[in-house]
Here is the input.
Amino acid sequence: MNETTTINPNYVRIFDTTLRDGEQSPGATLTSNEKLEIARGLARLGVDVIEAGFPAASPDDLEGVRRIAKEVGNTPPNELGLIQQPPMICGLARASKKDIDAAWEAVRHAARPCIHTFLATSPIHMKYKLRMDPEDVVEQVREMVAYAKSYCDNVEFSPEDAGRSDPEFLYLVLGEAIKAGANTVNIPDTVGYTTPDEFGKLIAGIVANTPGIEKVVLSVHCHDDLGLATANALAGIQAGARQAEVTINGIGERAGNTSLEEIVMTLHTRRAFFGLETGVDTTQISRISRMVSNFTGIPVQPNKAIVGANAFAHEAGIHQDGMLKNHMTYEIMSPETVGLHRSRLVMGKHSGRHALKVHLAEMGYELTKDELDRTFERYKELADKKKVVTDADLEALVEDQFYQTGELISLEGLQIVCGTMGMPTATVRLKSPDGQLYEHAAIGTGPVHATYRAIDGIIDLPNTLVEFSVNAITEAIDALGEVTVRLQTENSEVMARKSPQNGRNYTRTFGGYGADTDILVASAKAYLAALNKLLIFSGGHQPSAATLLLNSKKEV
Amino acid sequence: MNETTTINPNYVRIFDTTLRDGEQSPGATLTSNEKLEIARGLARLGVDVIEAGFPAASPDDLEGVRRIAKEVGNTPPNELGLIQQPPMICGLARASKKDIDAAWEAVRHAARPCIHTFLATSPIHMKYKLRMDPEDVVEQVREMVAYAKSYCDNVEFSPEDAGRSDPEFLYLVLGEAIKAGANTVNIPDTVGYTTPDEFGKLIAGIVANTPGIEKVVLSVHCHDDLGLATANALAGIQAGARQAEVTINGIGERAGNTSLEEIVMTLHTRRAFFGLETGVDTTQISRISRMVSNFTGIPVQPNKAIVGANAFAHEAGIHQDGMLKNHMTYEIMSPETVGLHRSRLVMGKHSGRHALKVHLAEMGYELTKDELDRTFERYKELADKKKVVTDADLEALVEDQFYQTGELISLEGLQIVCGTMGMPTATVRLKSPDGQLYEHAAIGTGPVHATYRAIDGIIDLPNTLVEFSVNAITEAIDALGEVTVRLQTENSEVMARKSPQNGRNYTRTFGGYGADTDILVASAKAYLAALNKLLIFSGGHQPSAATLLLNSKKEV
Here is the structure.
């Protein structure tokens, strides 16, 4: 089905590229499972299009997009009738046959597949990056858009670095793309330096001068280098664009992309001013924001619009002025609008398995029987230690459960001695997939360093730590500590990833997550989770491959 | 000296309110020392006005502003002639004599003192909060602006909630304020929901219709609830405003304020478009951003414009395309422009005290002899443990030094045993100001919990932990761990703080910071630092007051 113009002229399509442009954030490598989980969340959120990845980047990336196309691309996300059809699933491709083949291979099983191809049109890119004459650029756009169209009804074309392109040339290229079959044309501010006035004028110029523009959807894609991403996208929408390309939490390279939550809530809360609407279920915003933040390990600052921890908070302790009968005085968006629940539902030591299941379902988590069993076990251990198990604790348990599934090497025991005395020592006991136990003790500059050295003494997987972070604990200090670790490796066996913008390979970053009341146990679990992920990407799907890495001299 | 109009019509004054509006961020209580340090940094940065606080909030707040007025308000910040005069020092006051008296008392010793008073002008605020008729609001504005002017040449007036005020009424009130002597009028978007178009029109309307507006500086003050703070301020500036009220890192209540760095760098990098300039030394941006983030404990997300960790980074490992001869392809702001140094200067085990002093001076730190001695000691300890001491390590040592200065109770020893075995145990040894040692051991749900219970067994200062956070480590895992802790207390002896917007008292939050290669030692130090701060605010300036809190049964 050809989906050319939006039926409602006041409807703005939300094109989410968290899994593609967002994943290009430094340090944000996601596993195939994590991407699928996020895609499910995006469908629940009600985005119109999910750009699920860049299939030509690697076989793994292609497979990731394919899984999403098959499942999320065919499941209507909401039986209540709120959202009627599965989201469109889009794959990015440079303007080459090889990339477009890969993109089609990945998205073809979706009910509503889409190929998004791009080519740079600014003088500086054409000269220094593409090394192509403008006429050749036009020809390649014609050819490749037509090639994509031969596969797929829905084709989007982006003139990369449109912001610095010659406007007349831009109209020409866009007109040719439309003739060749593109039904969405997307205008990116690749460098991120445009202002709302300029970008609005650029879009208005395109609307006024591009042949065939009235037949297609005009889209905008902005970056936040000067803090103007949302304002620029809005200016483009006001000038006639009817699709916004966005990411959750505004993640992306450098200062990131336009935030989905900012665009959606601006249009939502100011609909009297803009007269526009989206298809997003705003009550899902809070949850998907946390999921993306946890999986990517990219934190959201407290003073981030809409989804920051303080977005709805006043200084703790400010007594609401008794005279203020009207709460509209300071706070127009209600926390409930974005899915934040003011009252914390808490469970205690005596809540049973069924109550846990029901409560998790209310929070939006549907676990398999095995997952529920394991979560319930850990929940009981936690409830024994803590007076009250909060929703935040439960979320951490579920996330941790998600990360431990499919683990190859597990933590069986950890013992730490440390402090100001000066010889931090860690003893670890690990279990390989075939059940063999290994122990090792090591000294470090601190307990975490000692732990990692002890683990390294058993698992021989050279790596570089690029980040170690602990989620801020905002409840009592006996709350679960959550640790995220990110590693890189020089191991050439590990599949490198190709960057769409410059075609070069770059090193993946592997993140691991762990949650425990003991911050050192959490640190150990996070490191192991990252190593396990590295193992999987190294081709270590076979348990025996993992065993080979274990230093057999340490056998217990 | 009356400083009415800016001499250069293309100059935009930067009015920094990090220490006032920024400090209203949940959790951001700063000590008097921290505020002074930040004020020094703001002067080095080259802001035109420092709003140093709300003196009527409490005697402590008044004293904090007074210290800044006396020192920073009289020191020309840059001998190189770049910045010729000390910044204006401003105190906030509600429109009452008592508040204005306090503000004058605080700022009077500055070379360029200023009083900033405000009163709400929107129907909803006048009706529900002030419970005043519009005529009475006008009269109070007249009276109070004149009263402030009787003290001080420089008076700023803000119509609170201007965004929802009736424009005609706004012109009237502003006209009266100007007649009564205000030489700056500031237009806030208090609720944070306006769009650039609307706010630009509001400012344009004020410029066109307010009697006397041409004689004063028109200022804008925006909030980021929809992610439009920078764009709204820019729209106001384009419509004729020549002062922007901003905070470092955009901190402030809820989603925060317009970021100083975003406004300054937008005007700077796009000066060909805007034709405007500020007096800010952009190379100081990076450093003040880190200082504010460390002192307030409010982290900056990686994808924050200008000052986020990834603002200048591409995915680690992307090989720069060899064909890209021109680096302008993707990155226009250079890291050096904002003071980020690409190459890390590292010092090793054999670098001497003088080299350390020189290196710290290059980084912008000038320590007293005692501070340098202590920092050098810790530096040597660290260099013994680590191969390479980086600039980040040095910064953490200096910050830690800053926090430990003036400590009442210090950490003399810490011993931890923990892990999966299940009985995390901490033993602490503390020293009181009079040299007495105390020891206690405790069990917890994890090593940090055990440590805090052990400390609580000695120091009797009931408190609630509202946040425990660890700075992400982005170097090797043997780097210094930095921990920030935030506490609150119900102790009524602790001076409460008054909110300027609603006059109610609210509980302070006390932050403590600690840095050590051992994350648990860092956690202990951070907790102690917060408790010491709480002691000071509880009136515990006398060492004996601190001793009384120690449980004498634990004496060694």
Observations:
- DSSP finds 17 helices and 16 strands in chain B.
